[in-house]
């Protein structure tokens, strides 16, 4: 019998709570649900009003992984959805919008990573986020990503744009900034120009093209996730990796002081103490008054 729990007046069915999802640590589905429920205060504002793509891994990261972009069968009627035009070739789709704790717990029960666009469903023609995904090609590591992130921070600041870092929850680093008054196309063009500029400034360290043969030992500055159809791992989402790693916001001090990859690796159990110490380090992204304008 599937347990039913009540979350803020909504009845949510939970399943397989004892199932081990991360065998290396014994981390269970029940613990995954507990993580999302207790992190909701920080996570929900970064999900709210954004269409969500789910990367599902119901049998753990070593099992089948698949993206779910359309509203899943059996979605409760009280879960908010929105029609989204992802691209001219794909046409419109109806996607989930996680607005509240019951919806978050329901979605977490599907065992998911949360991925969102860089725009709000109420205004899909305007990007409100700029993102760089810094992806190291071995033997480069997140330590090299930190060097690139610091360069990008200063370059963005020169244009009046304030950047905030978070771990990818795997091996890299994400830089995010709040922007206004720009389309996804224009934001992508600007991000690409800065990626090219970073490669010129640090040719031994940076590559801006996705070609895999160019990437060993360098940091790929992926600017393409600013495209309107693309989604990126949401702050605080768990990742489908060998360990229950989190895409966790970090301070610029931590970026500056990073000397080994393990310094910027955070598991689910690390997040509550970090929130207690720092609050949500990405809260400024939610303040429209702090959004920058592209030059």
Helix content: 25-40%
Helix/sheet category: alpha+beta
Radius of gyration from the CA trace?
19 Å
Q: What is the residue-mean pLDDT, rounded to a whole number?
A: 95
From the spread of the alpha carbons, the general shape counts as globular
Outline the biggest β-sheet. 6 strands, antiparallel
Can you characterise this structure?
A hairpin with a 2-residue loop joins strand 1 and strand 2. The model has no long low-confidence stretch (mean pLDDT 95). The strands form four sheets. Strands 5, 6, 7, 8, 9 and 15 form a six-stranded antiparallel beta sheet that branches. This protein is α+β, with helices and mostly antiparallel strands and 295 residues long. Helices cover 27% and strands 25% of the residues. It is globular and about 55 Å long. It is built from six helices and 16 strands. This is ATP-dependent DNA ligase.
Characteristic key phrases:
six-stranded mixed beta sheet, 295 residues, single chain, alpha+beta, six-stranded antiparallel beta sheet
What does the secondary structure layout of this molecule look like, with pairings?
Elements: E1 4-7, E2 10-13, E3 20-22, E4 27-28, H1 29-47, E5 51-56, E6 66-68, E7 81-85, E8 92-97, H2 101-109, E9 112-116, E10 127-136, H3 142-158, E11 163-167, E12 173-182, H4 184-201, E13 206-207, E14 219-222, E15 232-233, H5 252-257, H6 268-278, E16 292-293
Parallel strand pairs: 12-16, 13-14
Antiparallel strand pairs: 1-2, 3-4, 5-6, 5-8, 5-9, 7-8, 9-15, 10-12, 10-14, 11-12
Helix pairs in contact: 1-2, 1-6
Keywords: Ligase
Protein name: ATP-dependent DNA ligase
Organism: Streptomyces lucensis JCM 4490
């Amino acid at each position: 019998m599937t347990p039913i729990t009540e979350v803020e007046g909504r009845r949510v069915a939970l399943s397989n709570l004892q199932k081990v999802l991360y065998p290396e640590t014994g981390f269970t589905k029940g613990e995954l649900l507990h993580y999302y429920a207790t992190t909701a205060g920080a996570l929900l504002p970064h999900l709210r009003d954004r269409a969500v793509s789910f990367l599902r891994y119901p049998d753990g990261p070593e099992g089948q992984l698949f993206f779910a972009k359309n509203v899943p069968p059996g979605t409760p009627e009280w879960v908010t959805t929105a029609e989204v035009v992802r691209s001219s070739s794909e046409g419109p789709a109806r996607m989930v919008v996680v607005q509240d704790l019951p919806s978050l717990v329901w979605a977490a029960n599907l065992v998911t990573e949360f991925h969102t666009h860089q725009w709000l469903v109420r205004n899909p023609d305007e990007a409100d986020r700029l993102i760089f995904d810094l992806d190291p090609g071995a033997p480069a590591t997140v330590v090299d990503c930190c060097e690139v992130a610091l360069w990008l921070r200063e370059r963005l600041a020169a244009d009046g744009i304030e950047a905030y870092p978070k771990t990818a929850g795997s091996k890299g680093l994400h830089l995010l900034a709040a922007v206004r008054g720009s389309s996804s196309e224009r934001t992508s063009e600007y991000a690409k120009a800065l990626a090219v500029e970073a490669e010129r400034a640090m040719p031994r360290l940076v590559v801006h093209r996705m070609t895999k043969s160019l990437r060993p030992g360098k940091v790929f500055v992926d600017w393409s996730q600013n495209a309107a159809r693309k989604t990126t791992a949401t702050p605080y989402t768990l990742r489908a990796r060998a360990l229950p790693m989190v895409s966790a916001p970090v301070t610029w001090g931590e970026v500056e002081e990073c000397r080994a990859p393990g310094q910027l690796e955070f598991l689910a159990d690390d997040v509550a103490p970090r929130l207690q110490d720092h609050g949500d380090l990405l809260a400024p992204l939610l303040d429209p008054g702090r959004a920058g304008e592209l030059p």
